[in-house]
Design brief:
Layout lengths: L6 H11 L3 H10 L4 H19 L6 E8 L5 E9 L2 H4 L2 H17 L11 H14 L7 H19 L5 E2 L2 E5 H12 L4 E9 L4
Antiparallel strand pairs: 1-2, 2-5, 3-4
Helix pairs in contact: 1-2, 1-3, 2-3, 3-8, 5-8, 6-7
Length: 200
């Protein structure tokens, strides 16, 4: 027998997730009234919707400045969405603030891996290969190691692939997709600049 879905349950889940009424009701029905499963279902639905929105133009948004306490680190970041209405929501502003915090703390060098200049990647590969020179490992094994270490480099140095400092269970890419699902618009982290006192 299917669990009875009450208005209280719908209200509670809406407040928890910020999802739309019909989505909440559908998720509760799928999860047979289990709040945790319904919340997980909403996350999946949000991510699926987010994937569809990724192709849409995003020319509005915010340029946000963050100065870390102590005034030694500063970040300037541009995050775009589709409308100025969404740009002015608390959820969008919170996302932009969280991204600025991430940049200040984790020192990424690029937004996406394809933004990293080819010469930087070649230099990184050269350094990794040099570590295994004379190790007696076959060239194909060394190339596999280079590939693995390069993926680690991307995870550490590419903003969208970094683990979110406030919730290491998700990447910045997943955080952005979740916000797309909630706000219903495409969101693009366009560019950033990080300043640290005394550093080039």
């Amino acid at each position: 027998m299917a669990a009875k879905i009450t208005m209280e349950m719908i209200k509670e889940l809406r407040e928890r997730t910020g999802a739309g009424l019909m989505d909440v009701k559908k998720a509760l029905e799928i999860a047979e009234g289990d709040m945790e499963k319904a919340a997980e279902e909403l996350r999946k639905m949000g991510l699926a919707k987010a994937e569809k929105k990724l192709a849409r133009e995003a020319n509005e948004g915010l340029v946000y400045a963050y100065i870390h306490p102590g005034n030694r680190v500063g970040v300037l970041v541009e995050v775009n969405c589709e409308t100025d209405f969404v740009a002015n929501t608390d959820e969008f502003k919170q996302l932009v603030h969280d991204i600025a915090l991430q940049i200040a703390a984790m020192k990424p060098v690029a937004v996406r891996r394809e933004d990293i200049p080819e010469e930087v990647l070649e230099k990184e590969k050269e350094i990794i290969r040099a570590q295994f020179e004379g190790s007696g490992k076959p060239p194909q094994v060394i190339e596999k190691i280079v590939e693995g270490k390069l993926n680690t480099f991307f995870k550490e140095r590419v903003l969208m692939e970094q683990d979110f400092i406030k919730d290491p269970g998700k990447t910045i890419q997943e955080l952005v997709k979740e916000t797309i699902g909630k706000l219903g618009e495409n969101i693009v982290v366009r560019r950033f600049c990080r300043f640290e006192l005394g550093q080039e």
